[in-house]
Structures are given as C-alpha cells and as structure tokens.
Amino acid sequence: MAGRRQQELQSSERSSKAPRPNKSPIMVHPAPDGNIATGLSLVPGTESRQYHSKIESIYALPADGQEFDRLEAQHRLIGLLFGGTVSAPIELKTGSKVLDVGCGPGSWIKQVKTEHPEIEAYATDFADTFKPSDAQVKFVHGDILKGLPFEDDTFDLVHMRFFTGALKVSEWPVAAKELARITRPGGWVQMVEPDGTLRSERGITDAIADWNKRGMRGSLEKRGGEPNAGPKLHEFMAAAGLTNIDNKAKSAPMNSKVGPVGAHMNADYQALITTLAPVLAQSWDMTPAEVVEWGRKVMADCNSVEGFHNFHTAVGQKPQ
C-alpha cells in the first residue's frame, strides 16, 4: 500500500545558458527600510498567539514558541519522509556556502551545520524569529519578494520550504528567480512544498472532499495563494533558468498509528487546524470552534480511509 501511495515525478530539464562570471566574495547588504516586518500582532480570536504584522503578506501562521515547536516537529517529519536534510546531489565541503531562506526558527540550517560543520551557514527571514544557539549560523533579515541582501552567484546550496502559505500565485516565479540569482553557477536550489490536497486510495469521504475544497486549500485560494505549489516546483525552477531539475513526491499517512511518519503527520496537521482556525473561520463565516470540530471530523475520516498527504522536494542546478 505504501509503495502505491508514493509518487515520483519525472525529471525536467531546461537548456543550459551562457557561462556566468565567477562568484563574488559574499557580501551582505542591509535591507531597505520597510522591507522587513519584525513586529508581531494579534489576530482577533487568538489573543494568546502572536502573528506577523507584515500586512502585504498572505502568511497566516503565528510567530511564537508554540509555532516554533510545531515547525521543529515538522522538520523531523520531512527528514523522515525524504531521508535527510539535503536532497540535492551536492558534496558539501570546507567553505561551501549554504543558505536557508524563510528559516523560521532555523531547524533545517542548524541541522545541516551540525552534519557539515565545515560549511559556512546562513539563514534569512523577513522577521526576527531565528534564535541560534551559537554563532555557527549567520542570520540576515531578508524578504525574497523585495530582493535578498546577497550578491549574485554567492551560495553553493540555497534551500527554501513551506512558502505555500506565504506566496501569491504571481509571486512564485519571482521567488524562484531570486533563489537562482544568489546561487553560484554549478550550485543547487532545493525546495520543499505540499500539494494541498488530502487523498486516499480507498476514496475520500464527503467531509474530506469539502475540506479539500473549502479548508486550508480554499482559504489559501481566497487569499490569492497557490495550493498546488508542490507539484509545480519544477516549473518554477525551469522558468528561473535552472537545469537538471528533479521533483519527487512522497506520501505521508495521516493516521498516527502508521509509524513515525504517520505520528508526525497526524500531530502536525491537527496543530495546523487549530492554529489556522481563526483564519479559516473568517474565510467561511464560521467560528474557530466550528472549524476545529470540522477538522476533527476530517482527521477521523482520514484515519478510517487511510488518508495521506503528498509532499514534494525539488532540486535544480544553476548552469555553469
């Protein structure tokens, strides 16, 4: 059953471009005033949670300790699902420069630095949420839609994941081009995103079908987002000029009793339902409590029909 659930998309390539100049020494530029929203605000109905105050963003998740704990658990889920932190076929060595874009609490980049202490590790986010335990990772404020504060052709590996809830449909090509810009020729970009739909090989229930239409996916579409970002990652990379692109999908069971992946996926999705309940309630004229109850029904149905959720990891290389 697990083998049938797992999907793999065919590799996609874009023809090589003309040779690029050698990469410049790394330079960090201060972001222009107004680029970064470091303040936090409260969303009505969630007075105990703190949320980003970046008004022009569609990002709806909190920025507090509770959310950072969820992101850390989600990081472990993705590691279990894809077998580690780095999917790109790159040999990290002394002096390799690695950047984590939208780093949040820095779970990914801190693990990569632990596994490869010889690298130069950088992290960037539009909010001051990264609290490194030491000086091994350099954090820099940056907004990918307004230009990251790094020179062209700087990094050997650039990583970005879970921007599905942060970028509008029109912003994905912009983001992919920015990732490609700061990657050195021959370097790699790695992205991870979900596909936005709950699935089952035994058929979905009415509650799951309604959730797929109006739940997180529907709310994101109403806010201008792209719930199908995961399956389209190879398209964004190709349009940005990357080559040797590979986009793989793996399925995470929703049932907490189906191994460590199922346990992590179940806990993560239930936490997301509770966290996003106020936002979903505003989208569909419901109360947060009604959304949570709706979500519980969906989770129960996923258990009964062996529901699963697909995640995509894509890698692409910048031409020499």
UniProtKB/TrEMBL annotation:
Provide the Methyltransferase domain boundaries: 98-187
* Superkingdom of origin: Eukaryota
| Name of the protein in question | Methyltransferase type 11
Region named Disordered: 1-33
Organism placement in taxonomy: Eukaryota, Fungi, Dikarya, Basidiomycota, Agaricomycotina
Q: Does the keyword Acyltransferase apply?
A: no
UniProt KW Phosphoprotein keyword: no
User: Which terms does the record give in the GO molecular function aspect?
Assistant: methyltransferase activity
Q: Which organism is it from?
A: Trichosporon asahii var. asahii (strain ATCC 90039 / CBS 2479 / JCM 2466 / KCTC 7840 / NBRC 103889/ NCYC 2677 / UAMH 7654)
Show the InterPro entries listed in the entry.
Answer: Methyltransf_25 (IPR041698), SAM-dependent_MTases_sf (IPR029063)
Annotated GO biological processes are: methylation
A Pfam family matched by this chain, by name? Methyltransf_25
Its signal peptide is: none
Q: Which UniProt keywords apply?
A: Methyltransferase, Transferase
